[in-house]
Amino acid sequence: MPTSEPKKSPRAVAVNVLKGGFGKSTTAINLARELGDRNSTALLIDLDDNGHTTFNLGYRDRYEGDNHLQQILIDGADPAGHIVSVTDSLDLLPSHEALEDVETNLQSAMASSQRLHRNVVDPLLGDGYDYIVVDTPANRGKLNDNALFATKHLIVPLRPESGWESGITQTNKRLIQEARQYFDLDLLALVPTDLSERLDQDTRDRNLLYALNRRDDLAQFVPNFARLTPSDWDAIDNGEYTGELPGIRHRASIDKAHRARQPLRDYDPECDQLACYAELAQIVEVGGVIR
């Protein structure tokens, strides 16, 4: 890890990939928790209609009842009355079971892609919170457009599954490139997550890491904890690699933290994967990967 850091700035970021089951909620929760721990305050916004982030932080009750996201995004209500506390340094704006209604109503709303920015991020970022993290839907729509416009920064988690390449391709084509026709959108990091297989054999872990690290258009966005150089690959293939296993590795404590309704830091502060989430937090703080 670099010993010196560029100046930190308040920043919002969306955790987004157009494919379900790729670790968005896990990444968003633990990134936001590390940002809060390293700074003063962070807000996590759950815009995914499946509510996994909201459930995994113990606020299933807020997923039902009055549609607070309808009130905030459509009616312009103050978000402060609907934000809940996760830890001393992390708050949550929960998801809601009727987010599909919000999506529909946004279709006919004035400035329909600017509501999250205008009603939540702009008034709260810098004054109320140092950092804001948005967990997004896995499908294209107005809620996703709102997340990208409000944050202008993107982190893409990728699991070592057969659909990872189509996931990043569709995310780039249907989200990033389309958004850049209207506003600046910075990709901050591509995050290999939930890795568990060997790298000296033809495994999905190896294929994902090899493609990310060897493709010029992708390698610049790979965090240091997932970086493998050509000499590293030679060492792996020769049985001589002695470095840390790259990527966010599968750990039972990550799954158990969800069941305990806690971020990983609060459930298992000794987990070795916290260093990866800390680097992700640093990437958000300074606006990119530092080599």
From TrEMBL:
Which top-level group of life is the source organism from?
Archaea
Mind telling me which residue stretches traverse the membrane in this protein? none
Cross-referenced InterPro entries: AAA_dom, DNA_Partitioning_ATPase, P-loop_NTPase
Q: Which residues form the AAA domain?
A: 12-174
Read off the CDD domains from this record. Answer: ParAB_family
Identify this protein by name.
Chromosome partitioning protein
Instruction: Say which species the protein is native to.
Output: Halogranum amylolyticum
Q: What is the lineage of its organism?
A: Archaea, Methanobacteriati, Methanobacteriota, Stenosarchaea group, Halobacteria
